[in-house]
Amino acid sequence: MEQTWIILGASSTMARAFMQKLAEQGAGLILAGRRMDDLKTNASDALARGASMAEPIAFDARDPGTFQPVIDLALKQAGQINCAVFVGSMPPQEEIDADPAMLDGVIADSFTGPARFLQMLAPHLEARGSGSIVGVGSVAGDRGRIGNYVYGGAKGGFATYLSGLRNRLGREGVHVMTVKPGPVDTAMTQGMDDLPFMTTPDAVADDILAGLKRGKNVLYTRRIWWPIMTVIRAIPEPVFKKMSI
Question: 19 is in which domain, residue-wise?
């Protein structure tokens, strides 16, 4: 079956790695994001790699007016529609502490914007009875930590949303997979010291494709984060709030 992928946040480094692998499989790509110059470059690259189509289109998680045109473009395509969400922002926690108004943008980028888009897309996938949704969250969403609790709270909310969406759409033949990366070598993590078990965008993309093939519901990448976060979630709150992790 012909595959069309909507990629939200398609100019990000992780999204680009995922897009390249889909292009090599001959998928059609709708590259949605804010930086149109980057999206056009990525579209040209995707076509050169074998994508059946690659269309750049404006999308801003903070502007719901940009959502419907992306969905309309997808609905014009034949075959199966899929969506991968790479949208998110993570300013330093101390900057948000100094300017609480920044919180709104982080939550819109990392949770409410993508969730609203998926809520609009969901009925169309239900009607078709097929498709996959990949929602990229973070291990930071598994438990609030002093160093990035606003970002973690947004990603935790998104993971809970995806869990409910999975329950809804799974009954209609649509697969929803939550991806929880640890630190990834991207612009978002540049300048951060002592990040454990760093992985690469290519490795994350490979893990996502393997997870889709296996029908995974929740995917930690690197895999070592699953036992680590299982332990961290089990730490009693009176102990955890005294820790600096």
Answer: 3-240
Query: Is residue 89 domain-resident?
Result: yes
With respect to residue 90, please indicate whether it lies within any of the assigned structural domains. Answer: yes
* Residue 194 falls inside a structural domain: yes
Q: What is the pTM of this model?
A: 0.94
Spatial contact of 182 and 197, defined as CB atoms under 8 Å apart? yes
Question: CATH number for the domain including 198?
Answer: 3.40.50.720
**Count of domains in the chain?**
1
Instruction: Tell me, yes or no, whether 245 lies in a domain.
Output: no
**Torsion angle, CA of 80/89/217/229, rounded to 10 degrees?**
170
pLDDT tens across the length of the chain (245 residues): 799 999 999 999 999 999 999 999 999 999 999 999 999 999 999 999 999 999 999 999 999 999 999 999 999 998 999 999 999 999 999 999 999 999 999 999 999 999 999 999 999 999 999 999 999 999 999 999 999 999 999 999 999 999 999 999 999 999 999 999 999 986 655 555 566 778 999 999 999 999 999 999 999 999 999 999 999 999 999 999 988 77
Which phi and psi angles does 29 have, rounded to 5°?
Answer: -130, 130
